[in-house]
Design brief:
- By secondary structure, the protein is an alpha+beta fold.
- The chain has two domains: 2-67, lambda repressor-like DNA-binding domains (434 Repressor (Amino-terminal Domain), Orthogonal Bundle), CATH 1.10.260.40; 80-206, Umud Fragment, subunit A.
- The chain has helices at 2-17, 22-29, 33-41, 49-58, 63-67, 109-112, 188-193; strands spanning 80-86, 101-108, 117-121, 136-141, 150-155, 161-168, 171-175, 184-187, 196-206.
- A nine-stranded mixed beta sheet has the order 2-1-3-4-9-5-6-7-8.
- Helix 2 (22-29) packs across helix 3 (33-41).
- The protein is rod-shaped.
- InterPro entries: Cro/C1-type_HTH (IPR001387), Lambda_DNA-bd_dom_sf (IPR010982), LexA-like (IPR039418), LexA/Signal_pep-like_sf (IPR036286), LexA_repressor (IPR050077), Peptidase_S24_S26A/B/C (IPR015927).
- Pfam families: HTH_3, Peptidase_S24.
- This is Helix-turn-helix domain-containing protein.
- Residues 11-66 form the HTH cro/C1-type domain.
């Protein structure tokens, strides 16, 4: 019964796609309107092969399509790559050595081909309203970034911060999106002395509710 219903749906779908009335289809198949209506409603359960071929030709498709023999099978989903969600990162500590793993997130295989990634759970409200407390950001590991990029940077070897990067001739600024927080301005000698180190660039936000 389910197979009959599927054939009926495909016949009706093609007729409507071609904007054919029952009379249009009758003219193209030399079948009566009432017969075609009965095929489309499933009142006639058996569709003879010769009628199937005529009907498929009129509907500009194939008997195999109407019968469901050549339906495209859904491709299997690509496997994802799991990356750790960290609660903290610090300067000088390799990502793979950090044991403070809270969870795991998944990125695509294509994405994983373009670098090393980790995820970081954001603490605090300095990046609201765009990035909120407990949101997770996906970070590509890199030691430099462009103006305007949101980066993960470590200062004084302490836990890293998530800020927008602004470069100047004599230094950089790490800027919060929340206007209640003042930017952190750092001269070149401070960058080397503290030290300040970019750990990665935020490439994706995964908000948590």
């Amino acid at each position: 019964m389910e197979e009959v219903n599927n054939i009926v749906k495909r016949i009706k779908k093609r007729r409507l796609e071609l904007e054919y009335s029952f009379q249009d289809l009758a003219d193209k198949t030399n079948m009566s309107k009432s017969t075609l209506q009965r095929y489309e409603t499933g009142a006639i359960k058996n569709l003879p092969l010769d009628k199937l071929e005529v009907l498929a030709s009129a509907l500009q498709t194939t008997p195999s399509y109407l019968m469901g023999w050549d339906e495209v099978k859904e491709e299997p989903k690509k496997k994802g790559v799991k990356i750790p969600v960290l609660g903290r990162v610090a300067a000088g500590v390799p990502i793979e050595m950090i044991e403070d793993i809270l969870d795991y997130e998944e990125i695509t295989e294509d994405m994983a081909k373009h670098g090393e990634y980790f995820a970081l759970k954001i603490q605090g409200d300095s990046m609201t309203p765009r990035i909120c407390n407990n949101d997770v950001v996906i970070v590509r590991q890199q030691d430099d970034a462009e103006n305007g990029d949101i980066v993960i940077a470590a200062i004084n070897g302490d836990d890293a911060v998530c800020k927008r990067l602004q470069k100047y001739n004599d230094g950089i600024a790490l800027i919060s999106l929340n206007p209640l927080y003042d930017p952190i301005y750092l001269k070149k000698d401070e960058i080397d002395g503290k030290p300040v180190r970019i750990i990665g660039k935020v490439v994706e936000l995964r908000g948590k509710f």
